[in-house]
Structures are given as structure tokens and as C-alpha cells.
Amino acid sequence: MPNLPVTLDQLDIRLLRALSDHPRAGFLELSRITGTSRVTVQARLERLEEAGVIRGHAPQIDLPKAGYPVLAFVTLQISQGALAEVADRLRALPAVLEAHATTGQDDLHCRLAAPSHEGLQKALLDLNRIPAVVRTTSVIALSEVVAPRVLPLLESVERPQPSRAPSYRSEIRP
Questions:
Q1: What is the pTM of this model?
Q2: DSSP letter string over 63-93?
Q3: What would the DSSP string read from start to end of 29-48?
Q4: What phi and psi values does residue 72 have, to the nearest 5 degrees?
Q5: What DSSP state is assigned to residue 96?
Q6: Which of 150, 153, 172 is nearest to 162 (CA)?
Q7: CB distance 15 to 45 below 8 Å
Q8: Cα(66)–Cα(62) distance, rounded to whole angstroms?
Q9: CA angle 52, 56, 60 (to 5 degrees)
């Protein structure tokens, strides 16, 4: 059942916010931050991991500071029925950070990073060498206006209260 969405309540969202704001915090620290027992925090986070809501605990890497200041978005038009083949080839290209099959005129949208404009040109040439790629269009990002984020979306929806009182203190911190 990992493909079924999980119903998140207010405590789940508070835990995700606390974990996002304090990624190195352990269960005890997260319980202090959320005003919830350590056992509840641990059980909730394990449930969210098992359900696939939390997909990992990898560090967030600043690509420009890591030597990859050039970011580009590339759309691909591909041959009919070649999605699986192209996806395999895209996974083999280190410059491709992510790729999404889309509706509309283009078949795929990709995000690429490169150490320089010359590096981006090499990555674009690699994309165009994939036999099933018919056409590519690229745009270079000038600056990041909104960083990748998820929590504002999750926090924007009215959530149910937890099914039982998880607090071990009389006060619950936001």
C-alpha cells in the first residue's frame, strides 16, 4: 500500500515542520519542540517513513557552492513509445538532476546542473545524442526566486486533530 496517500493530521505536519527546521534533531529533541512524547514522535515518523511520505534524510546540497552554478530547464520531445528507453538514458547522465514526463507539446521536462556554460553545452549534446530524443529546448535559470519546498503546501490545508492527546505537557508549541 505504499502508493496510497496518507491522511496527515496536525501533529504529522508539526513533526514534519520540526524535522525540516531541525534536521539533525533526534526523537527526544523533536518531542521537546512539538510538545509530544518521544514514543509518539518515533512512532509517527516511522509511520511516515514506511508510507513513503518521508523519503530520506539526505543533506540539502547547495549546487552553486558545490561547484555547479549553472542551472537549466530542458524540455524534450521524444519518439512515440520511447519513454522507458529515454528515462534509462537520462538516469545515466549525471547532469540530469530530475526529469518528469508531462502533458502538452513536450514529453519530458528536466532540470540540469553544470559547472559552466561549456559543461551545460556538453550535457545538452549528451541529451541530443539519445536516439529517441527528437528535439530539445533549454532555458538557463538566472536566479532562484522560490526554493524547492513542500511544507507551505502541506500547512495550507485544514488538518484533523490527532486521534488521541499526544502531549506530555500542558502546552503544545506551534
A1: 0.82
A2: TTTTT--EEEEEEEEE-TT-HHHHHHHHHT-
A3: HHHHHHTB-HHHHHHHHHHH
A4: -135, 155
A5: E
A6: 172
A7: yes
A8: 6
A9: 135
What length is written for the chain? 174
Give the residue from 93, 107, 100, 113 showing the smallest Cα distance to 136. Answer: 107
Q: How far is Cα 89 from Cα 131, in angstroms, rounded to an integer?
A: 10
Interval 60-102: pLDDT, tens = 899 999 999 999 999 999 999 999 999 999 999 999 999 999 9
Within 13 Å and on the Cβ side, how many CA atoms surround 20?
A: 15
Task: Give how far Cα 133 sits from Cα of 87, 92, 111, 152, Å.
Answer: 11, 15, 16, 36
Residues 6+ apart with CB under 8 A from 123: 72, 93, 95, 96, 112, 114
Q: For cell 512539538, what's the residue?
A: 34
